[in-house]
Write a structure and sequence with these properties.
Blueprint (H helix, E strand, L loop, with lengths): L31 E5 L5 E2 L4 E2 L1 H10 L4 E5 L2 H12 L9 H23 L5 E7 L7 H16 L2 E7 L6 H12 L11 H11 L4 E6 L4 E2 L8 E2 L1 E4 L2 H13 L9 H16 L3 E6 L4 H6 L5 E5 L5
Parallel strand pairs: 1-4, 1-7, 4-6, 5-6, 7-11, 10-12
Antiparallel strand pairs: 2-3, 8-9, 11-12
Helix pairs in contact: 1-3, 2-3, 6-8, 7-8
């Protein structure tokens, strides 16, 4: 059984984020990568955009943060229905996803731009798996993220659904697996966020969801696991496997999503980041200060 305990705040080495000789990035790092899921951006009771969550999150973003935001497809679906008498698109699911996501992405960025501090620039970044499986493209992205911090800008990342074809993506992934031991698929923005957190060596990865964190019993909110820390990678690996076991065989909607989040969180934790899984209704400041109930994961004493 997982043991719970409190850990001391660590000292952070900012200089470790900068590559030797990379003068344009000197003195900058990324303390936080934030990921928010589609369902966290939508009010279930009336199937509409949760403007409160978007405005609160956007208002707390600042240079040095990276936001990975899902939601374009679902928000595009909602917007289409509003403009077409409640009707949904019919036909090929891949084409519908393309149509909804392209419609929703503009709305998503419009809201973020509206609520982010007007003194900050906002930069949209649409990525695909190829950007993380090619060293040159990956380095191009890494340098872009650091330039954003230098240039008072906030990057907002999402998967490029409008131009992504699932059949082609699977073929490309299969080809990559023949020559690479580790392949980034970007099948989920949880994976995208974890990969980006490693790319920029973020101190924290915050995953905002529609639940308070990870539960021992997904049907009982009182069983939330608040603190998962280990003294070494091997111990943490075992604890994450145990957490994942709680996410299978349940009737609660989204519990398999929790298992996927943990698999991707494993990458970030092993890289030295602290991972926090929390409800999107909480402010980032409250999450970071420990005022909210959430799940925190990290290897004690390990720094990037």
């Amino acid at each position: 059984m997982i043991k719970f305990r409190r850990t001391l705040k660590k000292t952070f080495n900012r200089s470790s984020f900068v590559k030797t000789g990379d003068k344009s990035m000197a003195g900058f790092d990324f303390d936080i990568v934030v990921k928010i899921g589609s369902m966290a951006l939508v009010r279930k009771e009336d199937n509409d955009i949760d403007y409160n969550i978007i405005s609160r999150l956007a208002g707390e973003l600042k240079p040095g943060y990276i936001l990975v935001s899902s939601g374009a497809t679902e928000i595009g679906r909602i917007d289409y229905m509003k403009r077409n008498g409640g009707r949904e698109l019919l036909g090929d699911m891949e084409e519908i996803k393309t149509d909804y996501s392209s419609q929703g992405q503009t709305i998503l960025m419009e809201f973020y731009r509206k609520f982010i501090d007007s003194s900050y620039s906002v930069r949209q970044v649409l990525v695909e798996h190829s950007h993380f499986n090619d060293k040159e493209k990956e380095e191009h992205l890494r340098r872009f993220f650091f330039r954003c911090a230098n240039q008072n800008a906030i990057p907002i990342v999402n998967y490029n659904d409008p131009v992504s074809n699932e059949e082609n993506r699977k073929m490309e992934i299969a080809a990559l697996r023949k020559t690479n031991d580790e392949v980034v698929e970007c099948i989920d923005n949880d994976e995208t966020a974890a990969v980006i957190a490693g790319l920029v060596r973020a101190r924290k990865l915050i995953i905002l969801t529609s639940s308070e964190g990870i539960y021992m019993d997904p049907n009982d909110p009182s069983t939330i696991i608040r603190d998962v820390h280990a003294d070494n990678a091997e111990e943490m690996d075992k604890k994450i496997d145990e957490l994942i076991s709680y996410c299978h065989g349940t009737s609660r909607r989204g519990s398999n999503g929790a298992a996927a989040k943990l698999q991707f969180a494993r990458r970030s934790v092993m890289n030295g980041s602290e991972v926090i899984i929390a409800h999107a209704r909480h402010s980032l400041s409250d999450i970071l200060s420990g005022k909210t109930v959430c799940t925190r994961m990290g290897i004690t004493g390990r720094e990037i």
